[in-house]
Amino acid sequence: MTPHELWTRFRSHYCSVPSLGLSLDISRIAFEESFFEQMEPKLKAAYAAMDALEAGQIANPSEQRMVGHYWLRAPELAPKPELSQEITMTIDAARQFAADVHAGTVAPAEGARFTRVLSIGIGGSALGPLFVSQALGDPDTDKMQLHFIDNTDPEGIDLALRSLGEGLKETLVLVLSKSGGTPETRNGMLLVADAFRRAGLEFTKHAVAITMPGSKLDKQAESEGWLRRFPMYDWVGGRTSETSAVGLIPGFLQGIDMDAVLAGARECDAVTRRHQTRHNPAALMALMWYKASDGRGAKDLVVLPYKDRLLLFSRYLQQLIMESLGKQLDLQGNRVDQGLAVYGNKGSTDQHAYVQQLRDGVNNFFVTFIRVLESGGEWLLVEADITAGDYLHGFLLGTRSALHENNRQSMTITVLRVDGRTVGALIALFERAVGLYASLIGINAYDQPGVEAGKKAAATVLTLQKRVAGALGVQPQTAEEIARSLGEVQETEMIFLILEHLAANGDANSSNDVDPGIRTFVAA
Ligand code: PA5
User: Fold this and answer.
1) Given CB 3.0 to 4.6 Å as the disulfide criterion, which of 85, 406, 420, 494 pairs with 257?
2) Atom 3 in ligand 1: residue holding the nearest Cα
3) Residues at CB less than 6 angstroms from ligand 1
């Protein structure tokens, strides 16, 4: 294409949404003009499915659930008045709770004030709060320091606790779990509660549960008299819960303007609810994903925000997109093995890492650049008439051109600045794009059978571990011998791996043989 043709294509496919301060350029995805027309029937069906979802139909058939994250920022659109009321009450309660904590009217039993927040949760109960905390936090204005535990790694938990140190007595602990039964979160909570006990502090007077009413966690929090309980709803999925209590409570506590996040998401929803595709950036994104990845995840989506504050956006999107779209079966139960792989960190940092391969290596991806117009920070000139921010912008445009010259596709989302409204809008934009794209490819974006399968598999391993530990004695035994004695010959490899773990953690002793077949183990 000549530069003039490129410019013409850019102009005719530039979707600008002034009310959001956001625009989307899709001109560097290789679609033909007829593509929109070809996709019209599928897109019409996707809009209809989205309208039905917003109206409260069961949009998550495998779990028989409504899907209501859009109502969280427009409670009046919820299909029943009780739901609208509940959403509004939760937003108000979250805002008020944070104000009370900041004012010291909600304070630790041991006196003084809560100055830190330790958030324990995983997946959708962690990634949104982590992303928003980093995107919008500011050490000068934050009202509280946020710390996160999002794994069952005892060393990671220990590090988080040590970073709190003496501050533990001023720490408010949030335990976030929609189901209230996720083992990683439960383990984090138990280790943290133990640290409180060892420090002579009463954990329950520092603890807040954010979970579905009636869940195991909710019942525990109620019976132990925790400081507060906030509801999560059956009809909000973990990965779309940032505008529920899951995101609001940590955000308000940190001092982030979560009302602006809600407003940005609400405004973006209003725009992306429209059926006028050329003016709907979420629909355009969904179409471009379809085009670039052949509607079957044939290419990966690389998310490249040129802004440090947006570093965790790609990680957040990795879950939102891959957990939603990575499905074996379509809505009719046919095997489809769908998905869209997502990775990325930030520019220009990544230009000194994997962008080399993007430019010159295997062409198995398309990029979404996120361009932030206002540079922020210091305006110091680093050379004649040029600031560090000019460099950042120059690197983005340069990389976009360099990729295009080598036939690599990209699209670009431009926002004015990273503030609450923009972050809310970006979250809502991708949530809607995921929902529309899921309809284009005919899958349920709102369940996660793979995650459930992983949980079950881990439980099986732990049951086996207990039996293996019980089978150890003073007589050295190989993995095969133990497997035979347990009647689990088909699990010999798993048993060897468990034995290695037990030996490394002082629960077994082992010989030094390198061959797994002859290595022997005894009880410690
Ligand atoms: O998005 C999802 O549904 C998952 O990633 C969940 O958030 C994750 O498994 C944690 O579940 P829960 O919030 O029930 O502890």
Assistant:
1) 420
2) 238
3) 122-125, 177-179, 182, 185, 237-239, 323, 448, 451
Neighbours of 168 (CB within 10 A): 21
Cα–Cα nearest to 73, from 220, 238, 259, 343: 259
b/e per residue, 337-358, with b = 16+ CB within 10 A?
ebbbbbbbbbbbebbeeebeeb
Catalytic residue list contains 455? yes
How many other β-carbons are positioned within 10 Å of the β-carbon of residue 62? 14
Q: Which CATH architecture has domain 3-66+261-447?
A: 3-Layer(aba) Sandwich (3.40)
- Give pLDDT, residue 502: 98
Name the segment(s) of the chain with CATH classification 3.40.50.10490.
Answer: 3-66+261-447, 69-256
pLDDT digits (tens, 9 = 90+) for 68-121: 999 999 999 999 999 999 999 999 999 999 999 999 999 998 878 999 999 999
Q: Supply the residue whose CA is at minimum distance from atom 12 of ligand 1.
A: 177
Question: Do residues 429 and 285 lie in contact, with contact meaning Cβ atoms separated by under 8 Å?
Answer: yes
- Report d(CA 233, CA 247) in Å as an integer: 13
Check if CATH label 3.40.50.10490 holds for domain 69-256. yes
Residue 338, amino acid: Q
The span from the CA of 261 to the CA of 132, in Å, is 9
